[in-house]
Amino acid sequence: MLNILRKIKFESVAAIICAFFIWNFFLRLAIEKKPPQVYDDKMGFHLEAEEEYINSSEGFSKIKTDRFGFNNDRIENPINTSIDNIIFLGDSYTEALAVNRQNNYVKITEKLLNDNGYAFRSINLGISGNSIPDHIRNAPGFIKTFNPKYVIVQLHFNDFVDEALNPEHGNKIIKKENKYSIEHSIRSKKRTANHIADITGWFQPVSFRIINNAISSYQEKTFKKNEIHPSNDSEERNREEIQNIIDWQVRELKKAYGNKIVFLYFSPLPNIMEGTVNITENSSNTEKKEMVFNSAKKWNIDTFDIEDVLVEYYQKTHRMPRGFQDTRPGLGHLNAAGNYLVADSLYNYLSEKLNNIDLKK
Amino acid sequence: MIFTSLEFIAFFLILMLLFPAINNQTGRKILLLASSYFFYAFWDWRFLFLILLSTAAGYYFGKEIYRSENATSRKAILISSIIANLGFLGLFKYFNFFIESANTMFGKFGFNLSALNIILPIGISFYTFEILSYTIDIYRKNLKPEKSTIDFAIFIAFFPKLIAGPIVRATEFLPQLKNKIEITKANFSIGIQIFLIGAFKKVVIADRMAFFSDPVFSNPSLYTTYTVWLALAAYTIQIFCDFSGYSDMAVGIAKILGFDLPMNFNIPYASQNPSEFWRRWHITLSRWLRDYLYIPLGGNRKGKTQTYINLFLTMFMGGLWHGASWNFVFWGLWHGGGLSVHKILSGKKTGNQHPFSFISWFGTIFFVMIGWIFFRSQDAKNTVMFLKRMFFVENFAINWTYSALYVLIPITIIAHIVGYKYLQEKYPRVNLASFSGAFIFTFILLGIILFYFNNPQPFIYFQF
């Protein structure tokens, strides 16, 4: 062993360290820096509090998390009797780390409401990768901490199915003795990668990329579908099972948040698929939307869809409301234009629907 | 099992461990052959029988041509050999193409044949050309048939070059099997460097370019003129880094095992005319086409008109070799046209006319890039739309750019200028014991690891 060590030249070791150092430097410039996700009983998983987040994989943004670990300005007193809270639940589209804070739809909605005489504070509780089981499970903590007047839940069809049933997720739906329930596990493997990489300090960009990539690849190869995943069944039962799973989740959401809840439905459009911009009726998308809307109607939840607004924007401008310079057109998160369109529609919807109730100052 | 997969790394490590454990040369050759067949069977074991059959046929025909002293029978055996080899290739690669083309052309007259449900055996175009060159060389008395069946089978199935070349000639490979086969420290040091350069080109550069070029080539009508031009630049870099990256990896792996494979790319985008381009791009294919097709057709010895016809025919076949599709045929004819025009303009002179001429270089790279549109587009409609979007400015469309391009386009140009000056016909090498050598080595290795999992794409030339 000593012989081997003696043979290793100082120059070689120095060269290896230098190469590592330079890659790390490049990645710090080009790749996002994300504080690790942490867990607490009240809020579930969220980013570390008051940490800086730098994103450059989609556009460029720099955001500091609030004292709860969310993408908000610092909130001193979340329950303030003089102003009501609207909380926004959702995934990375709501968390909106790809744009600066003043350009995300949560913040713009607040601004539009305030500018037009409605006194509301919007609180962004979006967390990348969250889906319906997370929103259900986080409800007691969110309600206690923010006492919201309204709860906007941004969701996609997949939040009810693939995401909600993914065994790798912290909260996922299982079926036991013909009954659905949420199974909870504290940490998924992917989050562990974040923590391991964090130990490496300044070398976090290189180490995170290597560890996270290796774990993702391992997960892809060993991915086991939840046994109640509808795609395991025949097409006919598939639809029925999906509808049941959606119904159950919508009911649980309603139970958790009561009449305060509004759905903000994101269709995966406009999207570039197979030779054209997919802005016409895609049967599978229409069907998926119908399933969610039917369920929401059954449980008396208002559902607001932004598909038409985004499609119209593309048709008029030939610009995409989602995606950035380095993301494929039609994919990626909402950009500044997309966020504004969502906020504007949401404001119109809120002001129209809720105007005469109690929003006006 | 592609060279950049974890399966391949495991396979190669096991092979490296087994090699020193076997002391005699025959044992090592058997190991080499068995591992090559395993490598091929890993993709689809059923086609192992096809490669065994092609090998047996090549071996038999080679011996028969050599044994026969009668010129007519030698020719007859050679023709039988060519028919057998091209028969396999034609059946698996071109049969459906011809059926579909005939159906389209004569469909009005009630002509309708059903296509066969067959898939293209990977690497068939490459090893078929190697077997053909072997039998033709014996016929021309440039080569004696190989006595050892194991050696001949290794020549055909040697796994580093089996799937996507380089297309090796018997005269340059078989003699190497007579030397001692061993993994030496010196060969390992050179081979691993060549391999890593290839992997870097593929994993770090080509796959990033594919991320941009694929969507634009799929739907050129959706994008602005600027985006379409950028996508063409991206594809120009991508296809070079993808294919030359694969070739480098093949050469590197072979070198580690103690074998020298011919260089397949020699700074091609620095060429200053189409003729020079083909001396630098896919060198092993173009020299095959030159020696076994263009020259037998008469080359440039039968007058100007015949020379141009020969150029078109050769490039037509070269295009068709790439795939059973009209876009490859057009690409071949485009280059046939370019070579003819260059012949007309340069008269009887050969070689590089203007070694420092920017205009020559610019004209050549522009010509090559336009050719890539035929090569890459899925169909004629897309090709026309791509060209239309390039030359008729349209700004009311998606204006997409990709930041990696603004770094990689200048790097590619600089790399070509440096390579043209310092790396003619050789691979860059560093001294791993020195600071700079160890730094470059680690930098490249880390780059491959860091980008390995992002948007992996299959090698373009696997489909040929």
Written account of the structure:
The complex is a heterodimer of chains A (361) and B (464). By secondary structure, chain A is α/β, with parallel strands linked by helices. Chain A has 13 helices and 13 strands. Chain A has helices at 2-7, 10-30, 92-95, 105-115, 132-146, 157-160, 162-165, 189-199, 204-222, 235-257, 283-298, 307-317, 336-359, and strands spanning 37-40, 44-47, 52-55, 61-64, 84-89, 120-124, 150-155, 171-176, 179-184, 261-265, 271-273, 276-278, 302-305. Chain A has a five-stranded parallel beta sheet, sandwiched between helices. In chain A, strands 1-2 form a two-stranded antiparallel sheet. Chain A has a two-stranded antiparallel ribbon with strand order 3-4. In chain A, a hairpin with a 2-residue loop joins strand 8 and strand 9 (179-184). In chain B, helix 3 packs antiparallel against helix 4 and helix 10 (225-256) packs across helix 17 (403-422). By secondary structure, chain B is an all-alpha fold. The mean pLDDT of chain B is 86. Chain B is 69% helix and 0% strand. Chain B has 18 helices and no strands. The chains are: A alpha/beta (361), B mainly alpha (464). Chain A binds chain B through residues 9, 11-12, 14-16, 18-20, 22-23, 27, 206, 209-210, 213-214, 216-217, 272, 275-277, 318-320, 325-326, 328-329, and chain B through 211, 215, 218-219, 222, 396-404, 432-439, 441-443, 446-447, 449-450, 452-454.
Provide key terms for this protein.
heterodimer; A: 361 residues; alpha/beta; two-stranded antiparallel sheet; 13 helices; B: 464 residues; globular
Layout of SSEs?
The complex is a heterodimer of chains A (361) and B (464).
Chain A: H1 2-7, H2 10-30, E1 37-40, E2 44-47, E3 52-55, E4 61-64, E5 84-89, H3 92-95, H4 105-115, E6 120-124, H5 132-146, E7 150-155, H6 157-160, H7 162-165, E8 171-176, E9 179-184, H8 189-199, H9 204-222, H10 235-257, E10 261-265, E11 271-273, E12 276-278, H11 283-298, E13 302-305, H12 307-317, H13 336-359
Parallel strand pairs in A: 5-6, 5-7, 7-10, 10-13
Antiparallel strand pairs in A: 1-2, 3-4, 8-9, 11-12
Helix pairs in contact in A: 4-13, 5-10, 8-9, 10-11
Chain B: H1 6-21, H2 25-44, H3 48-67, H4 71-106, H5 124-139, H6 149-157, H7 159-162, H8 170-173, H9 185-218, H10 225-256, H11 274-280, H12 283-294, H13 304-322, H14 326-346, H15 358-376, H16 380-391, H17 403-422, H18 435-451
